[in-house]
Amino acid sequence: MTYLFCIVLILVGVLFRMVPHAPNFTPMLAIALMSGLYFRNKFSILLPIGIMLISDLFIGSHAILPWIYFSFLIIYFLGRMIKNNSLSIFLSSICSSILFFIISNFGVWMNGGYSYSIQGIVTCYMMAIPFLKNTLISTVLFSGLFYAIHQFSHSLSFKYKESQT
C-alpha cells in the first residue's frame, strides 16, 4: 500500500503543477509534509523534490527555486517529527504554509524583487499576503485528503491481511 500511496502523491503533484490553477493552490507542501510523515526510506525526500524537478522541466524555472526547494526540505523534516493524527497534521499544515511564505518571500526579496531595505522586505511580505490564503487553504485541504486516503488504504490493507489468516 505504501507504493500505491506514493504513486497517488506523484500523480496528484505532477497533475496539479501542470494544469492551470489558482496562484499557490497546489498539493506540493502537503506532499512534502506527508512524505516526511509516511515514508521512512532515506530517499523519500526525493518524492516532493522529484515532483518539482520533473514538473519544472515542463513549466520552467525561476530565480527563487532554491528557496522553494529549501522550504520543501524543512517541511519534509517537519513531517518526520509529527504524529500521525488529524490535529498534528492540521497544525503542521498551517506551520508548513507559514514556513513556505517566510522562506519563499525572503528569496524574492534576496533576488532583488524589492529594495534591499527594511521597507523593501516589509513591502515584499505585504504584497505576498494574498498568496498566503491559497497556500494555507490548499495545504490544509490536501494534507487532510492525503491523511484520509492513507488511513483508508491502511485499513483496507489491514482487513486484507486479516482475511488471509
Present the secondary structure layout.
Layout: H1 2-18, H2 28-38, H3 46-59, H4 65-81, H5 86-110, H6 118-163
Helix pairs in contact: 1-2, 1-3, 2-3, 2-4, 2-6, 4-5, 5-6
Explain what the structure shows.
There is one protein chain. The longest helix has 46 residues, at 118-163. The radius of gyration is 17 Å and the shape is globular. The protein has helices spanning 2-18, 28-38, 46-59, 65-81, 86-110, 118-163. The protein has 165 residues and is an all-alpha fold. It has six helices and no strands. The protein has a single domain (2-163), classed as Arp2/3 complex 21 kDa subunit ARPC3 (Orthogonal Bundle), CATH 1.10.1760. The mean pLDDT is 90. α1 (2-18) runs parallel beside α3 (46-59) and α2 (28-38) packs parallel to α4 (65-81).
CATH architecture designation: Orthogonal Bundle
Give the C-level CATH assignment. Mainly Alpha
Helix content: over 70%
Major sheet details = none
β-strand amount: under 5%
SS elements, strand count: 0
Examine the coordinates and then state which fold CATH places here, giving the name of the CATH topology.
Arp2/3 complex 21 kDa subunit ARPC3
Determine the mean pLDDT: 90
Name the helix and strand elements from N-terminus to C-terminus, one letter apiece. HHHHHH
Number of helices: 6
First and last CA, distance: 18 Å
How many domain regions? 1
Low-confidence segments, given as residue ranges, are none
